[in-house]
Amino acid sequence: MKKLTRALALCVVLALGACALTGCAPSPGSSGGASAGGASSDASAPSGPISVYAREDGSGTRGAFIELFGIEQKDASGQKVDLTIPSAAITNSTAVMMTSVASDPNAIGYLSLGSLDDTVRALSIDGAEPTAANVKSGVYQIARPFNIVMTEDASPAARDLAAFIMSAEGQAIVEENGYVSVAEGDSYVPSGMEGKVVVAGSSSVTPVMEKLAEAYRAANPGMTVEVQQSDSTTGVNMALEGTCDIGMASRDLKDEEKGAGAQATVIAQDGIAVIVSQESSIDDLSTEQVMEIYTGAITNWDDLI
After folding, report:
1. Closest by alpha carbon to 105, among 275, 270, 255, 278?
2. CB neighbourhood size of 190 (10 A)
């Protein structure tokens, strides 16, 4: 029995020695908690050239982004000029932007806060976290309006859909989908209309518009609502041309669009999130740093870390 006891003790000693040699630490792939800034424990600091991603010309998100971050500046003649670095990779929709940034550890991009998912990480700007609550309170100031655009010749059906969007039910859908409501409307009374409304434009507004259209159709079974995704400028132009009933724009109207007869109604407020891949340990940038990245004054992550 004594021999057996001594043998067991020897096994324990040998096991403890092996543990000491290997460190008994979690493997690199094991769970070790999150870092203070919200990045996962396996996130690493990006290094090398910054991969800059931008939206296409005509995008309301791009228009608002360059204005809010000072990337759009006046030239010597007083004309506004977009100074986005020419080497920026152009993405033509919110979905493409998200996929592109998610797959590039050195990437930076931007998109509608309401469209954000867990494939990418949104950065705090000037210490303010990008949330709907912070947009509503004004703490997070990188925000813009979502507009629907019609003309004075808009059909009764288009105006009824607009009334639903601004109703208590419509604005509740806005809030439920991560945006900031802008009205405390009355309860919507179904109109019983029959027909079709075509809504076209901004890819940022499209997700919440599809939810609004679905609820409107449920209230009015005789109505069809077709939502066509493109960009804000296309949506405004289609509304002016009469090729859609309602345009969607994720920016304010330009003076020339108003002069042509476009009439905008703000249906929601939305933040613009500056995003990086989940692999990046970057948590916060200043407004000035974002501007310098997008104008080419800063081109390497090592200059920020």
Report:
1. 278
2. 14
Q: What is the CATH architecture of 51-143+273-303?
A: 3-Layer(aba) Sandwich (3.40)
Q: What is the CATH number of domain 145-270?
A: 3.40.190.10
Which among 274, 275, 272, 229 is positioned nearest to 119, based on CA atoms? 275
What dihedral do alpha carbons 64, 65, 71, 73 form, nearest 10°?
0
Q: Each residue of 233-267: pLDDT tens digit?
A: 999 999 999 999 999 999 999 999 999 999 999 99
pTM, to two decimals: 0.78
> Does pLDDT of 12 surpass 50?
no
User: Would you say residue 192 has pLDDT above 70?
Assistant: yes
CATH 3.40.190.10 occupies which residues in the chain? 51-143+273-303, 145-270
User: Tell me, what's the pLDDT at 42?
Assistant: 59
